[in-house]
Request: fold
Amino acid sequence: MTERSAIAPPPHARWRLLVQFLGSMRLAVSLLVLLAIASIIGTILTQQQPYPNYALQFGPFWFQVFRELGLYNVYRTLWYTGIVAFLVLSTATCVTRNTPRMLREMRDFPTRQAEQVLLEQDEWVRMQSPLAPAAAGERAAQVLRAAGYRPRVEQVADGSLAVAARKGRYQRVGYFLTHIAIVVICGGALYNADVPVKWAEWRGALQPEKNFDLPLSQIPQKSWMSVHNPAYRGTITLPEGETANAVFELAGDGYLVQPLPFRIHLQSFQISYYSTGMPKDFISRIVLYNDQGKELKAGLVRVNHPMSYDGVEIYQSSFSDGGSLLRMNSYLLGAPGTSPRTLEGRVGQTLQAGNSGYAVDLKNFDLYNIVPKSAVGEKATPDHPTVNLGPSFTYIVHDKSGAGAEFKTYMTPITREGQGFFVQGFRTAFANPYQYVYIPTGPHGGIGLFMDYLAALQVAARAGSNASEAIFVDTFRQVVAQDAPEMSPNAQAVFLQASMDALLQLRDYPMPFVLSLSSFDHRWAAGLQVTKWPGTTVIYWGCVALVLGIFILFYLPQKRIWMRLRAHDEGVELLAGGSANRNRLDFEKEFSTLAAGLEQVLEGSEIAHKEKDNGKPAS
Reply:
């Protein structure tokens, strides 16, 4: 048994080592540093975005590395939750271990100290007085009271007097407040982090759905969280006039569905703008209903002004198109004598372009497009550096083989040097920037004149005409005489030059037709964030306690002074020593003032004092 105890410590010793490790300052500082690093990453790197956005931003290698580390949703990772939980355990252990000792210090302050202990204090002084010990002790106590201390005088068995006094008795309260505040804040964060959901994901009982095109009714139950989930944060894009009873929370490369205890109905959505045309404020008018259709609450939700109901906060986070109805004209490139075809559909729908085999996915509609004036050839001014190009719509065209290209078309023509241009952007890959085609508009603002000119050129080419300046000019004159005889010679010259530029730009155009927007019925959709974080109030109070505790620790230091008075041949000898746990330079000055006051009231003389390391006296 003796041999075994020499090899391994007894169980109680191991527990003591574990408690010391958990309550050590090094562990707490290390955990705080790790949390700080993780929080910095979570602040710099935008969280909970679709994975394709990260893959495009970082490339395939680093995308995979960051994904494995969980950096795209730092606050939902098990390792982050584990660090927070370990910090709670460490801080709670530290408080539990040190509380009995600190309570004893606050309650019991020893009056007697050995002479060697007094000489080891930060400051000490020795002096003599002709007074009797009792009178000297009383006067010393009066000096301490005048300085704000509460002295205690005690008779010692050897006939001497012991005097003790201190300030900042409750400074240890600052220690309790700061440490308990960390436990409260981290505990509230753990509660808000919805640990049961993470645990269910880790066990596989809850599986994120990866098909973002599924309607709500077809999402598997394994992707639904409980309606009684204590904490969540989800988003939903709600069109005007629509109602929703669930929100979506991104989880990795998929999402989870969080049912709500009420239904949200978006009555209307409004945007206010600055004079530059940039959005200023987003306002949603929403109504909350229960399952029976009873109105629970109605009001406005705007940026930084959420609506609260039964512990749930509804924030205005974004806005987008909510399925606007678009009416478009389709112009075939190089088809003489054909009128434009009409297409109509809502954003989000897929349309068939006649019998051509091309499919048009209406992707988005923007009511306003704010761009720098320099981008459209206009001169910028300090008051108006941008210009609003008006409505535009984005769509993707797929051919029969499935290959596609993305287009962005502006409804309102822009004007350069008196000539109007229809602006059409296109790109064949999502990562590529848009290439732009500027098609000149005719006298009535449409692109029909250019399309007829292009068709006439192709007819002349099929007839065997060579691409010469004469062919371009003669063909243009014929088209103008037929379509726009009222054009002046100067307008014809400008239009012809713009048409030549457009023909060069169309060489890379990937589709055989051009869509232009003729009219629309706009419909907004509000991006709402629905949050239930019951631990937030606890966190706020924890922050208050943390600030108060730090204030007490730094600005209410604990100061302690002990005195020993012994009878002497000519009166009494006094030895006084004191220390402070903070602001020691200030205490040095205070102790010097006390020593001078003692010397005065005791009618004595200072015979010794503590010297600093450089040999100079303390005062």
Notes: The first strand starts at residue 123 and ends at 129. The chain has 14 helices and 26 strands. Residues 78-107 form the longest helix (30 residues). Confidence is low (pLDDT under 50) at residues 1-5, 613-619.
